[in-house]
């Protein structure tokens, strides 16, 4: 795609506008003149650029209706190109209607004066017109309009509507900003932030602002937001420095937290002589980027007016805002001291309007509420006070003053009532705890309220705390138990008691009633009882903290149960069958039973038993004693006589094994050769042999005879 571009140069902008004027010499005519040739971009024998012939046409400009110094001319480029032939470097002629592929036409125009003798420039040297002031066009078939402005210096500032002026802001974060092509005034659509060194360098079409094509430097401004305004017809520009919009505007009422300034009408409450409207203002300012701005360049103010109900205006007050920020910052805060706005106001309803302004380099910037004022409403009643307040007992602390709302009065415990007397202005009414008031022990809170007559939603309350000395009564009026009897009988002055109960009483409940209802008691309710002494403490705490303890010692009798609930043996059978009331039993066992175990269970878990466990039996009667000791130490004995049969040899299970013991000799006869081993009861080997007839003399004792590995226990008496 072919394009239209503008030849740029740096331009020095005048800070004052140049006034336009009409052309003084009608013999001078403004024309649009071609000043340069086609360029062949493709490498061929045709060569580079070709000068325009002196006979090339000029296009006359006409004054724009309604203006004194603005001229215009419209050219159809295709008509121009198709009526001219261009010469190559070797003299060849080129017909633009059938160009070779790869050609790119470049045609240059300049706006000049043409007098009766020809062009202002040397027509034999058309390139004498500074090429940097020309418009370069690289497209056929385009209709282009040229404009020119003639000012007091008679120099031409030209403009082509196909080429947009460009303002380039250097040394900042904005980069280049392109203004739309326009005749008249045009302004950047958004502020441009200047940072870096703070210097702005502006480059634009020199046709517009600098016909001499000279470069230059420009004004230096502080960092921050700027708006650029260009006026082509007056050849003027302006740069306005602005501070970012004020951010986070806040108000603080009294000691409450600061809040955002309300965008709608908001009621902030009622204020009195005791509670004045302390109003503080705060705003923040910040740079458009993280680059800092100079705090010293900014002046911030609060403006407010207080308007009584029924009126439309109040007196405007300006309050300078202070900041602790210094030098260059990215964010700074400006705020005011607390202002007493309700002081001196007559009683009634008011509207408070306030707004913020910030001033940077002489440019006033309104707050961020779109230029609207913030509005709050409030009530002021400076006469809303008590004139006097008196008490019949004790003394007000602190001493009464109309602007003091909270008081304390201390009285003795025998003061059961107090009287309050209060007065106020005639247009005020008093309600609450006036007159005589009953007192409880301890803290008593009273409130007396004053309000304007006929106004229900506005009031001021005085609070009086009366401390009546607390009761020190820590006695009981009643004390009782659910089991047994208190000894001695209850009396509030007696603090120690005993109670005897039977062993089967396992719990007891205590009930106690305090003599003073403000006292408290602990230790009442149900208590589990152990056998023996149980100490219960009933503690009374008086209202003033005095403590007194009543003690009850409950003596639960110990158990006398020395019976068994179960009795058994591991061998034989008890005769008769066990019964807790039967104390004597017999058991018969065979001679080969040498040990018997006894198990006994007491009927009372608190009782103990001895005599249970394993017992070694001798031949004949064995008397076993099982003794039960009750919790109260009383005892009872269960007797078991175990009769162990006498031996007459050894009873054998196997019929083929026959063993006898007689006169200290062990004799065994077998049907076949048998392996015999004789051991002591402790396992000591005494004899070993293989035989069918075994005889061995031994001493009294217990032996083990192993027959083919099978043991037999033998008792020798």
How many β-strand stretches?
59
In terms of per-residue confidence, which ranges show pLDDT below 50 for 5 or more consecutive residues? 1-26, 37-55, 79-92, 96-104, 116-129, 209-221, 649-655
> Number of helical runs?
2
Helix content bin = under 10%
How far from one another are the termini? 140 Å
What class do helices, strands and sheet pairing give?
mainly beta
Provide the domain count.
6
What Rg do the Cα atoms give?
Answer: 63 Å
Mean pLDDT: 77
Strand content of the residues, in percent? over 45%
Based on CA inertia axes, which overall geometry fits? elongated
Largest sheet: 6 strands, antiparallel
Put the structure in a nutshell:
The chain is mostly beta strands and 717 residues long. The chain has two helices and 59 strands.
Give the arrangement of secondary structure elements.
Blueprint: E1 4-6, E2 9-10, E3 29-34, E4 59-60, E5 62-63, E6 70-76, H1 77-82, E7 86-87, E8 93-94, E9 107-115, E10 118-119, E11 135-137, E12 143-150, E13 156-160, E14 166-168, E15 176-178, E16 185-187, E17 192-194, E18 203-204, H2 206-209, E19 224-231, E20 236-242, E21 247-253, E22 259-260, E23 266-272, E24 278-286, E25 293-294, E26 298-308, E27 317-320, E28 328-329, E29 331-335, E30 339-340, E31 348-360, E32 363-366, E33 374-381, E34 386-391, E35 406-411, E36 417-424, E37 428-432, E38 435-438, E39 442-452, E40 460-468, E41 476-481, E42 496-501, E43 507-514, E44 520-522, E45 525-528, E46 532-541, E47 547-556, E48 564-569, E49 584-589, E50 595-602, E51 608-610, E52 613-616, E53 620-629, E54 635-644, E55 658-662, E56 665-680, E57 685-697, E58 701-707, E59 710-716
Parallel strand pairs: 23-33, 35-40, 42-47, 49-54
Antiparallel strand pairs: 1-11, 2-18, 3-4, 3-9, 5-6, 6-12, 7-8, 9-10, 9-11, 12-13, 14-15, 16-19, 17-19, 19-20, 21-22, 21-24, 24-29, 24-30, 25-28, 26-27, 26-31, 31-32, 31-33, 34-36, 36-38, 37-39, 39-40, 41-43, 43-45, 44-46, 46-47, 48-50, 50-52, 51-53, 53-54, 55-56, 56-57, 56-58, 58-59
